[in-house]
Amino acid sequence: MLAVENITKRFGSNVAVNDVSFSVAKGEIHGLIGPNGSGKTTLFNVVSGFYVPTDGNIRFEDKPIGGLSPHRVAREGLIRTFQLTSVFRGLSVRESVDIARNVARSNPSLSGHGNWLADFRETDAILEYFDLASSANRHADVLPGGVQRTLSIATALAARPRMLLLDEPLAGLNPTEKAKIAAKIRALRDGFGLTVLLVEHDIKSVFSVCDNITVINIGRKIAEGTASEIAANETVIRAYLGSAGVNNAGR
Ligand code: ADP
Ligand code: MG
Q1: CA 85 / ligand 2 centre spacing (Å)
Q2: Ordered domains of the chain (ranges, CATH)
Q3: Nearest to 139 by CA among 181, 101, 84
Q4: N or C: which terminal CB in the chain sees fewer CB atoms within 10 Å?
Q5: Is the pLDDT of residue 113 over 60?
Q6: Is any ligand 1 atom within 6 A of the Cβ of residue 11?
């Protein structure tokens, strides 16, 4: 569904992403992990159209999307989570979901697809699914962090993604909130076949949620595989997980 092909992104002399390739199949939850500063967010921004790649191609459902504006990428159905605090300031939970739904409805390329999203056609159904109904009339920006993060995923869903891009959806959450959101991401895939690219620092969650994982270090891909393959990969342990392995990662 998504093919990232030999992507390089330079900032001046700094090569933030260096010749990285990976692909994500339809219905797959694909993790992108690596140490701080390894280029995860930069790659995420290239995929979502916020940065123009210095080199390489990105294909989404066989259509070249590298270098398209964020707006155009979203129109193709590749939806990233919104930054709640800037986008939804002053709006209630319900209004936030409504706006995202209206954006999708007025977008011809999104309105006609997504039978798997039939369950999410109405705002109430979305709020219900994400346990947000009781907070529907509250202002989004005063909600606890975990609820805000849930809302950002709910609004992304309301925009009818063919594929969802999540950049650290679990950052700053407590273990209970993390488990809850991780379970939701998994349920969206299991129940509706949603395809997800997940950039996340919390290794345990990544290992439990992702089908396949790409590991980058200093801008380069160093490994790719299932959670158990990655956890046992010597190069990944040396560069990222450390000698204590999984238990020591994600801090
Ligand atoms: P990660 O998300 O894995 O922590 P980033 O993608 O944020 O890593 O950063 C990778 C490298 O790219 C870092 O060296 C960072 O300083 C650099 N970088 C990221 N964004 C920019 C930018 N807008 N301008 C210049 N350098 C940047
Ligand atoms: Mg980052």
Answers
A1: 17
A2: 1-77+163-174+192-251 (3.40.50.300), 85-161 (no CATH)
A3: 84
A4: C
A5: no
A6: yes
pLDDT tens across 151-201, in order? 989 988 888 888 999 988 888 888 998 999 999 999 999 988 899 999 998
Which residues contact residue 36 at a Cβ distance below 8 angstroms, ignoring those fewer than 6 apart?
none
What 3-state DSSP class applies to 167?
A: strand
201 φ, ψ (degrees, to nearest 5): -90, -20
Nearest CA owner, ligand 1 atom 16: 37
Rg of the chain (C-alpha set): 18
Query: What is residue 19's three-state secondary structure?
Result: strand
φ, ψ of residue 83 to 5 degrees: the values are -85, 95
Ligand 1: centre distance to CA 39 (Å): 6
Residue (of 110, 97, 116) closest to 158 by Cα position = 97
CA 241, CA 235: separation in Å to the nearest integer? Answer: 9
Does the beta carbon of 9 sit less than 6 angstroms from any atom of ligand 1? no
Q: What is the pTM of this model?
A: 0.90
Is the CB of 36 within 6 Å of ligand 1? yes
CB 163 within 8 A of CB 196: yes
Per-residue pLDDT, 111: 54
Contact (Cβ atoms closer than 8 angstroms) between residue 49 and residue 72: yes
